[in-house]
Design goal:
The complex is a heterodimer of chains A (515) and B (488). In chain A, α8 packs antiparallel against α9. Residues 417-422 of chain A have low confidence and may be disordered. Chain A is built from 26 helices and 4 strands. In chain A, the strands form 2 sheets. A two-stranded antiparallel ribbon of chain A has the order 1-2. Chain A is 50% helix and 2% strand. Chain A has helices spanning 16-26, 33-40, 43-52, 60-68, 76-83, 95-110, 114-126, 140-151, 156-164, 167-172, 186-195, 204-213, 221-224, 255-267, 270-284, 291-303, 308-317, 319-323, 332-342, 358-364, 392-407, 441-444, 452-463, 470-478, 499-508, 510-513; strands spanning 217-218, 229-230, 240-242, 245-247. With 515 residues, chain A is mainly α. By secondary structure, chain B is α/β, with parallel strands linked by helices. Helix content of chain B is 32%, strand content 11%. Chain B contains 13 helices and 12 strands. Chain B has helices spanning 3-8, 19-31, 37-51, 115-118, 125-131, 155-162, 182-191, 201-208, 256-267, 272-294, 324-336, 366-392, 456-467; strands spanning 103-109, 119-120, 142-143, 149-150, 166-173, 217-220, 235-238, 343-348, 393-398, 419-424, 433-435, 454-455. In chain B, a hairpin with a 5-residue loop joins β3 and β4 (149-150). The longest helix of chain B has 27 residues, at 366-392. Classes of the chains: A mainly alpha (515), B alpha/beta (488). At the A-B interface, α11, α21, α24 and α25 of A face α1, α2, β7, α9 and α10 of B.
């Protein structure tokens, strides 16, 4: 463990509240002061248990997101029925894929099923099928619902089989044009290198043999309306040996069974268990995961035959997880979602508000950060490593997003609703005669602030950011050329309309970057 | 056309990722220069040194980088040419052979640029036949040689040609034929290697120039960071120089300086994983602010009244949603300020001209207007830089693919393969048609498309070696054919 020095106090766990913060940042996308308060009674174990059974959690905000993104919920047949316009007209084929991106980001920000959304993020990257991309226009939403979300907290082998033979994957990695005569190795390679046993365990000969075995699938859009069909004539039925798995010569029509057996065999390999457990550790614990934990989780994975929930439970209960407090850094989608959650904003109910689409605007906040959900071009998905996100453009963009969101300036449609339904972490009034009244009063147990130090403490509590170093507080007060003990000026703008400035700078600080 | 919209109208042949070449690439990169945390931090320090933000970094700057000794960064502004003056190319500074400190500006023509009307083979009878009404007539073309003529809209570039400051490479394309999808072909172009997970080639270029003082890489224009810059090199990326700022500070009671001071205090001494991005952001903010103060333009937060406009510097007026004029002006401002800029990216979109592109002489036609704008912007950029800096600069155009040789039934052009590249610069031996042109006879075409007989990486590779001081071109373009084609 590295030594914590002055100004780094937020890198260490100090209280039971910090336990909650740790689990809600890692297993979710962040929290508001209300989320934190609500979780205090049961503690982190109760919060985690509920997250591990998401179907038991009421989710009105998530339901609102889904209701506002109906095109993201369509099956292949529905997409064809709605988007395939008569010949000669340009179909709006990309609407479903875009709305899927909107929904994904919306759920990360607003859903109460936070761990589920983190796992959806994980699997979306693990089994990446770039969204949006032209070839999968009709099946990418179906893939999200029936592969990623359906199995996100299920059994790995089920998900692997579902992903491998879904039209989206068949098209994305070229299986749909891999034939007996001309086998395409793309999917065979990624199936082993990325999805299961890991690159170091694959030889060229294995890729060639697996590619032969996996031939025969056709997704002929026009004829089959986007559905996958197995064509025995295109399948190579010869005997094959891949990594010690023997495939006997079979009837061509039995191809799908032989393929399924191979994919299931891969799912149960110990190398697969280790590869996936390491990736889960990188996602949830550390950019340099401790070998001890990978080993421990691999054993749990094998014992439960690739069931995800017991593995996650072991991960979050491990000493290594709790020792890793302060080690992970939020990637852009996590950072923006955390800001929205800390501001306790409500999910927009409307698909369109005054000509603007709130979820479209929310999604596009991630564009300049290069982190649109699912949009990574290569099959390996977005990086979970802090070093890959530390560029000037990304950082500056996030700082500006913090300000837009704190101020409710942009996107307009996800800013503060008019009237009483304001975000609770903002001052009550713009009227100079009515200074700050802490709206979260019963939770925070605070009287209206009198000094700059108290005002900063108020903002710190409102954002529930946790331990906020004294030197950082002094730096913030210095923005107003004040010391912490100075009494607030009568017309101090931070008390009124400029309060969001203080909030943004707290979101801009290193303590908020920590996941 | 923005890129996103263009994807919606294509014949949907999207990404194919070839893992085999990706793995080969991975091995290559490991052999070459290990790129990771280490070189990243060094890059950060080089920037930090210049703008005195090294205290942001967790590690004290113990490396005495040349950056720390750079002085006289913000010299007085260059005299500004009065009004549009594309009639004459900047007085030529005699090319002095290879240079190592050149500046590369890459203009990405998104959507699939029609190289066959821009640089038309008017001497080939098959051309007029294939293109029909939308062909450039021989007598309208601006003559280049016996075979080729420039589109009549491109008088600006013709001036550079005549001054031997532009060469043209025809029948160029990307590595391998990967279908006709914008998405796929653009990804190939921007990655510059078969391995799409390897990051962008311009990012590798910035890293190859690591240790150079100042902000080496910048992208101006575009809705998001170009794939060519995908990676961890320090760089400035923004829609415009005016946009590199903190939105938060309120003019009445606050300032960017005070915000940044608070952030600096909070980030100093923090672990690398938290501090590096912030130090880089601070450096770009600092640079952009200084450039804007020394050389204000309209729209800058620092420009109280007025400030330069693209028109006042000789660029054409903005055309629709195309900001190439201001993007190139911003790049010129960075170059003139002595910011250290060596590698700049910008773009012009809406080249996906499937229908109603207009004729060559129809001045309000879609293709005519865009070609004129592009040509005038580049010519103005040359003037804006002035002879000395223009002599160090090389501007190249790239596009994901060319367009079909034959026109379609809607007076438009569908997606093709081979294309052409403009290479402009005060210090190149220009006025040459280069590459391997095989003519438009049916047996020379590839399924109705111009073939790609030269790879675009070979063209840029020559510039990297002869004008950018990159000794190992393979570190930027793995497995490139590293053979000069006669540009320099």
């Amino acid at each position: 463990m590295t030594k914590i020095t002055a100004g780094q106090e937020f890198l260490k766990r100090h209280s039971a509240d910090d336990d909650l913060r740790h689990i809600m940042r890692r297993a979710g996308f962040g929290y508001s002061v209300y989320d934190l308060h609500a979780a205090r009674a049961g503690g982190w174990k109760a919060w985690l248990d509920a997250q591990l059974s998401p179907e038991t959690l009421p989710d009105p905000e998530g339901d609102a997101v889904t209701a506002a993104c109906p095109l993201a919920m369509r099956s292949i047949a529905e997409t064809w029925a709605q988007d395939k316009l008569p010949d000669g007209q340009k179909p709006h084929r990309w609407a479903g894929m875009h709305e899927l991106g909107h929904r994904t980001m919306g759920l990360q920000c607003y859903s109460s099923r936070q761990l589920l959304e983190q796992m959806v993020d994980f699997w979306t990257n693990h089994f990446n099928v770039t969204n949006p991309s032209g070839r999968v226009w009709d099946c990418r939403t179906d893939y999200d619902i029936h592969v990623i979300r359906k199995h996100a907290l299920g059994r790995f082998s089920d998900m692997l089989v579902a992903a491998s033979f879904h039209p989206a994957m068949l098209k994305y990695l070229d299986s749909f044009r891999s034939t007996r005569k001309d086998p395409n190795e793309n999917f065979a390679r990624e199936l082993m290198e990325l999805h299961t046993i890991g690159v170091k365990n694959v030889a060229e000969e294995d890729v060639k043999n697996a590619a032969r075995l996996l031939t025969g699938w056709v997704v002929n859009d026009k004829k089959t309306q986007g559905q996958a069909v197995f064509d025995p004539k295109r399948h190579d039925p010869r005997a094959a040996a891949v990594l010690g798995h023997q495939v006997p010569r079979h009837e061509p029509a039995q191809g799908p069974d032989a393929q399924r057996a191979f994919v299931l065999w891969l799912a149960k390999r110990p190398e697969t268990a280790e590869h996936l457990c390491r990736k889960l550790c990188i996602k949830f614990v550390s950019d340099n995961p401790p070998a001890s934990l990978v080993k421990k989780l691999t054993a749990v994975w094998k014992k439960h035959d690739g069931l995800i929930v017991p593995v996650l439970k072991a991960l979050f209960y491990s000493k290594e997880f709790w020792d890793s407090y302060g080690q992970k850094v939020r990637k852009p989608n996590e950072d923006i979602a955390a800001t929205i959650r800390a501001l306790a904003l409500k999910a927009p109910r409307e698909r369109e508000v005054k000509g603007r689409k709130p979820y479209h605007d929310l999604y596009h906040l991630l564009n300049l950060a290069g982190n649109l959900p699912g949009a990574w071009a290569a099959p390996d998905g977005y990086s979970e490593l802090a070093k890959d996100w530390q560029t000037s453009g990304v950082q500056l963009h996030l700082w500006n997003v913090h300000h837009h969101l704190s101020q409710g300036g942009w996107p307009k449609s996800i800013g503060l609703p008019e009237g009483k339904d304001r975000s609770p972490v903002r001052p009550e009034s713009k009227d100079p005669k009515k200074p700050l009244a802490p709206q979260a009063g019963p939770i925070m147990d605070m009287s209206p602030p009198q000094t700059y130090g108290e005002l900063i403490e108020y903002a710190v509590q409102m954002t529930a950011i946790g331990v906020f170093p004294m030197s950082h507080r002094k730096a913030l007060a210095a923005m107003r050329r004040k010391k912490l003990g100075d009494l607030l000026d009568e017309h101090e703008p931070w008390k009124y309309w400029a309060f969001p400035e203080l909030l943004s700078q707290i979101f801009n600080s290193p303590a908020f970057k920590v996941r | 056309m923005n890129y996103e919209a263009s994807q919606g109208t294509e014949p949907h042949v999207p990404p194919t990722q070839c893992a085999e070449s990706r793995r080969a690439q991975r091995r290559l990169e490991q052999l070459r220069q290990p790129v990771g945390r280490r070189s990243f931090v060094q890059g950060g320090l080089a920037v930090g040194g210049l703008f005195a933000v090294s205290q942001w970094s967790a590690q004290p700057s113990t490396v005495e980088s040349p950056a720390n000794t750079v002085t006289g960064i913000f010299q007085p502004r260059q005299p500004v040419p009065a009004g549009p003056s594309i009639a004459a190319a900047p007085a030529s500074v005699p090319p002095s052979g290879p240079i190592t400190d050149g500046i590369l500006v890459v203009i990405n023509l998104r959507g699939g640029f029609d190289g066959l009307n821009a640089v038309a083979p008017v001497g080939d009878p098959a051309y007029a036949k294939a293109r029909g009404k939308i062909a450039v007539p021989r007598k309208a073309a601006l003559a280049l040689d016996n075979t080729f003529g420039l589109h009549p809209a491109m008088a600006g570039l013709h001036t550079l040609w005549k001054a031997n400051q532009m060469s043209i490479i025809h029948s160029v394309g990307s590595l391998g034929d990967h279908g006709r999808s914008h998405f796929e072909c653009m990804a190939r172009l921007e990655r510059g290697t078969a391995d799409l997970t390897a990051g962008g080639w311009m990012d590798r270029l910035v890293r190859a120039l690591a240790g150079q003082p100042g902000m080496v890489g910048a992208q101006l224009g575009g809705n998001s960071v170009t794939g060519a810059f995908n990676g961890t090199s320090p760089k400035l990326t923004a829609p415009g120089l005016k946009d590199v700022r903190m939105i938060g500070p309120h003019p009445k009671h606050s300032s960017q300086a005070r915000w940044m001071a608070a952030l600096q205090a909070m980030y100093s001494g923090q672990p690398e994983r938290l501090a590096v991005g912030s130090a880089a952001a601070a450096a770009t903010l600092d640079l952009a602010t200084k450039v804007r103060k020394a050389d204000p333009a309209k729209g800058d937060p620092e420009a109280k009244k007025g400030g330069a406009t693209p028109e006042s510097r000789g660029y054409p007026k903005r055309l629709g949603g195309h900001h190439l004029n201001s993007s190139l002006m911003d790049i010129a401002r960075l170059v003139k300020s002595g910011s250290g800029l060596r590698v700049a990216a910008t773009e012009m979109a809406q080249w996906d001209m499937h229908s109603a592109i207009g004729t060559a002489t129809q001045e309000n036609g879609w293709q005519h207007r865009q070609l004129k704008y592009l040509s005038d912007c580049i010519a103005a950029f040359a003037n804006d830089l002035g002879p000395e800096l223009w002599a160090k600069t090389t501007v190249v155009t790239v596009s994901e693919f060319g367009r079909r040789v034959a026109a379609n039934a809607s007076m438009g052009l569908d997606h093709g393969r081979g294309n052409m590249m403009f290479v402009c610069g005060g210090g190149i031996h220009g006025g040459k048609m280069l590459g391997d042109w095989k003519g438009l006879a049916a047996d020379q075409l590839h399924r109705g498309d111009l073939p790609a007989t030269v790879e675009y990486r070979q063209v840029i590779g020559e510039i990297l070696r002869a004008r950018m001081g990159v000794a190992d071109v393979g570190s930027v373009f793995p497995q490139v054919v590293d053979k000069p084609i006669g540009l320099v």
